[in-house]
Amino acid sequence: METEPKPYRFVSKVDVETSRYLLRIVIEREPPVGWSLIVGDFVQNLRAALDHLVWQLVRANGQQPGRSIAFPIFDQEPPMRRGHRERERWKAMTRGVHPAALRFIERLQPYSPGGDGPSRNVLTALRKLSNEDKHRTILSAFSAIEHREPIEIDVVGVRDVRTPVEGGQVYAGRALKSYDLVLEAPVEIIGPNPEVKLEGTLPMDVGFGWKPVPLNGLVQMVQSVAAIIAYARGFVGVKPGVEVKRVSTEISQA
Question: Is the model more confident about 7 or about 247?
Fold first, then answer.
């Protein structure tokens, strides 16, 4: 990202038919394909660490883990009615886990209240990348960074366009290919040859996956998995029938 010349550049124009300013990316050099192998190995180790954790929790509860034991990551709470496919899958993945440890796992779920929802949940991203790596390939790609605040870009010159240019939208959270649209904004055209010159920084990053997870997101995965395992150690050695009340509210935000 910091090399010169940059691995990407931008081209822009004012679309007369739609009265929109359009900014597109041109990718000069794609991210190295080898990164996909590294990130795939990284993701599978994190996912496996959680699965191993559930296996140990079952054994700590004096039970024998079955073949379906795994750490559940559900975007929606499984219906309580007996026989429902998702409820049965949940039960198979957690069969033998102590009830207190099971409540701990439930509080970590992307659907659990108090979080940002499945679309921004670290475990959801981990599950999706893990599945993508198993069935396809985790491809690295450039992507615009999603911002909840307005992007700091200034208009430094216009022709045949009334200023200011406001209400721009950044297209973030997806893998970008050459000539993909990354920014657009409405303009009021007042002449035959409209032109807009902008100056500023459009945040870009390298992300991984179909809906790219940025490098910082991978760091958050490590921190979350490490925290989950650290807190779960309190359940190891719990005897069947013994109630454990220590469940961290902090880790429910993981």
Answer: 7
